[in-house]
Each structure stands twice: as C-alpha cells, then as structure tokens.
Amino acid sequence: MSGTTTQVAELTKLLEVKMVHVGVEKEKTDALIAVVGRESLEAGKEAAAAAVQKAEATALTEEAEAEEGKATAELAEAEPAMKRAEAAVDCLEVKAIQELKGMGSPPQACQDVGKAVLILLKGEKRNHAWN
C-alpha cells in the first residue's frame, strides 16, 4: 500500500504542476479571446464602412454609365451632321476660297457662315467683320 500511496502523492504533485500550467494557458487563452473579440468588433465596423463605400461607388458607377449612355446617344445623333459637314468642306476648292476672300461684301449666307467659323474656331464673340 505504501507504493500506492507514493504513487498517489506523486500523481497529486504532478496534477498540481499541471493545474498551474493549465491556469497559465487559460489566462493566455482568455487574453487571446479578448483580443479576437476586439478585432472582430473592429472588423465588423470596417466591414460596415466598406459596405457603405461600396454602395456609394456602385451608385456613382451607375450614374457614370447613364451619362456615358446619354453622351453616346448624342454622339450618334451628331455624327451624321459631322459627316455632312466634312463632305461639304471636302468639295471646297482653293479657287472658291480665294474668290470669297476677294469679295468686299459677300452674300449674307457667306457672312453668316464666316461668323459661325469665327465663333467656333477662334471663340470670337464681338468682331464678326468680313475682313
């Protein structure tokens, strides 16, 4: 029996050492759980903020796509007029332009086109004299 009592005493001492070790590990685990809890809370806040930013970005993207659609439609509408204008300019000859330059007082339609060109190309708002 004395061997059993010795074994029980040794096991009790070993159990006490193990319990101290378990206590230390439990404290470490509790500290880690607290850190994970704080970080999870912060991650939740950041996820909520990211969701708000994502919603804002999505709204801006949709708005930009709508604007792009409008611009594309306007461009498609303007392209035929641009092609007609290019065709009209392509048929001009140097001789015709020199004839216009030489006119002291060209027809009103020519003056109107000249004014339009001054406004569009040079940004001229006041001086629309033929010369």
Strands, helices and their partners?
Blueprint: H1 2-90, H2 94-102, H3 108-122
Describe it for me?
The chain has three helices and no strands. The chain has 131 residues and is mainly α. The chain folds into two domains: 2-91; 94-131, no CATH class.
Keywords:
about 130 residues; about 85% helix; 3 helices; mainly alpha
Helix residue percentage: over 70%
Q: What is the subunit arrangement here?
A: single chain
Compute the CA-based radius of gyration: 44 Å
The H/E string reads HHH
What is the strand content?
under 5%
The helix count comes to 3
Number of strands: 0
Structural class: mainly alpha
Please summarize the sheet with the most strands.
none
- Mean pLDDT score, rounded? 87
List unreliable stretches of 5+ residues: none
> Separation of termini?
131 Å
Shape: rod-shaped
Q: How many structural domains are formed by the residues?
A: 2
Brief overview:
The protein is mainly α. It has helices at 2-90, 94-102, 108-122. The termini are far apart.
